[in-house]
Amino acid sequence: MAKADIDFEKELWDAANELRGAVSENNYKNYILPLVFVKHLSERYEQVHSELEQLVHDPSSDYFTADPDEIDYVLEDRDEYRSRNTFVIPHAASWQYLKDNAEQDDIKVKVDDAFDVIQDLLTTYNPQLVNLLPRIFVKSELSAKQTGGIINLLSHPKFSEKENPESDILGRIYEYYIGRFAMAEGSGAGQFFTPGSIVRLLVELLEPYKGRIFDPACGSGGMFVQSLKFIKEHGGNKSDISVYGQEMTAQTLRLCLMNLMLRNLSFDIKLGNSLLDDKFPNLKADFVIANPPFNVSNWHPEDLPEGDPRLFGPREEFTTDGSANYMWMQTFWHHLSDTGTAGIVMANGAMTSNTKGERNVRQYMVDQGMVDAIVRLPDKLFLTTGIPACLFILSKNRDGKDGTHRERRNEILFIDASKLGTMVSRKLRVFSDEDIRRIADTYHTWRTVPAGDPVIASDAGAKQSQQKQSPYQDIDGFCKSATRTEVQKQDYKLTPGIYVGTEAEEADGIPFEEKVEGLKSTLLAQFEKAEELKKRILENFDKI
């Protein structure tokens, strides 16, 4: 379904700026996003109410009836609304009511009261949704005028799902705000926001059409939303995926739950620290897509049970208190199904770290054939950190037995994407659609069985068989399919630059001898000029 092209950035930032002075910028989201969410639930209820109203008056419908009591019963039947992913919203909690009362002195009370009513509906439906809409307006420094101003701005017809049925308008508004608030918050936003460029690339690499998707560091749910977009764009069905996530910050968890409810996704999101308190111990996912916090130190690996099933070996040898990066890797691997694939954003240091606990895990992953691909990312993709990053793709479908992918247990694909992307501001770089397509196509071509042409690769003959039977080709400076032996010889370093080499420069057609002669004559001329300048300077000194 094509999205309507609606330009709304200016009005949305105007709405956020209504908060200026009364609320710090890093708290804007706590006031704006719940209102967007309440507007969504209210509009969704109105739409379903209208649909049911048409059905009860349509003689060809199973709902048709002329009995006024039966009509009222159908229009107020909570199960009818729940089956259509919404709730019966009482008038005093509706967006229309808040809009009608936006100029009243007690509008802050009315908003908090509406939050209470909707919160009761949410908690009754799903206990996971407790405290999603806390009473925050009355005790805030916001004036009644500012609160009403936000309501009026969000009531603009271009922000209505009813007026723009094909635009996912409120979902897009929510996404816009999360991005803008991350920009305003700077380094504090890293816990809840992963830039769209990186999320889109990960999703295009993994292609999560159907199955279980898990993100143990899910933040505000961007990975899930992008997975849903991918499915829609490729004609899939969102009912074919189920979403699981864990988030350690209660406030961020609220953002995520609202984000997923805006998209009517089925989900199971839990609060907790995934490293030390895995809330999904038995979950095996088809896709793990995650951007865990980088280089977390002092995370207390000593608190892990000695026989933690996620660990590749003894706790003392496979963890380090200096960084949780490789505990995340072991967690992701543990949660993969027999044919699952994980895409993880990591700090560049993870590719070469020699700290015992990290080096041991990386060596184990290479020796056991777990690493499918490594992508080096360009700088400035993150608003929230200057730490250079890369992508680790880990996979359990490397044996070639799933019918879709070739056998590649003894190979690792290295992609150096550090030169891709375009600067859209002094601080931010983004990937174009073409950049994302180039990286993703390279990976898919490399790992996929060509039509009617099975590939069997051994460590020694991997490159040879690949050249004969696969359309994939190494490209100097960009991509290289390296054997496990090559990686072991490089002391298990996973930096793509080691393997892809430097990009071949285009020849300019001038013979080498001619170039040398040209350089020599230029240099001699510069020497002469230097002698002349030296003479003139000395003469000037004599005159002083």
TrEMBL record:
What are the GO MF terms of this UniProt record? Answer: DNA binding; N-methyltransferase activity; site-specific DNA-methyltransferase (adenine-specific) activity
Report domain DNA methylase adenine-specific positions. 167-507
- Supply the EC number(s): 2.1.1.72
Q: Which Gene3D superfamilies match?
A: 1.20.1260.30, Vaccinia Virus protein VP39 (3.40.50.150)
The N6 adenine-specific DNA methyltransferase N-terminal domain is annotated at 9-123
> Which InterPro entries does this entry report, sorted A to Z?
D12N6_MeTrfase_N, DNA_methylase_A-5, DNA_methylase_N6_adenine_CS, SAM-dependent_MTases_sf, T1MK-like_N_sf, Type-I_RE_MTase_Subunit
What does it catalyze? a 2'-deoxyadenosine in DNA + S-adenosyl-L-methionine = an N(6)-methyl-2'-deoxyadenosine in DNA + S-adenosyl-L-homocysteine + H(+)
Q: Name one Pfam family in it.
A: N6_Mtase
Sorted alphabetically, the Gene Ontology BP terms of this entry are: DNA restriction-modification system; methylation
Which SUPFAM superfamilies does the entry mention?
Answer: S-adenosyl-L-methionine-dependent methyltransferases
- Which superkingdom? Bacteria
Enzyme class per UniProt: transferase
The UniProt keywords, alphabetically, are: Methyltransferase, Restriction system, S-adenosyl-L-methionine, Transferase
Q: Which family does it belong to?
A: Belongs to the N(4)/N(6)-methyltransferase family.
**Protein name per UniProt:** site-specific DNA-methyltransferase (adenine-specific)
What species does this protein belong to?
Algoriphagus alkaliphilus
